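Researcher: Here's a chain I'd like modeled. Treat it as a single chain, no partners, no ligands.
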Amino acid sequence: MPFVKNFLLAATACGALAACNAGTVSVGAGGSGGGVAVSGNVGSPAASVSRYVASNSMVVLGAGYGHFEVQQRAGKGGSDYWCAAGEYVIEALGQRPGTRIYLEKPFGPSNLTSAKSIGFTFAPDASFKAMADGVNSGLTMSMKTVGSNWSAEHSRSQCSNLIYNGFF
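Model: Modeled as a single isolated chain. Structure tokens:
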């Protein structure tokens, strides 16, 4: 049943965009159930962006190697954004669970769409990493503190669905 659900999500994800010329649709079939990745052109033909729908229905847009945005969704909080970021890095990009994810751009206008988003990276440059090393991420998953960082697995563990909680 997860395949059918994810296939329908892929079709919906592409259909929700005004100009989505999907070349490929990938459905994660790993032990976690995975999400849905749709690659294609979003918006203008010149703007090639990868699109991933996380298991918590948050949309992640890839913005070049190591940089991506999680789009705003009403009623979602910081842990939901970090969940989508962690799942995207591990499931869609194949990075190791111990990979650090850094909040690069606080909640605000997107660089990729007209929506609001949070910008993340797992490939910071040396100066950004040095700045982030001095940031205390505390106990909450911030949507505002640039440099906040968590491992991809810790971020993904924030996903509050039955698949991640071990019921399936």
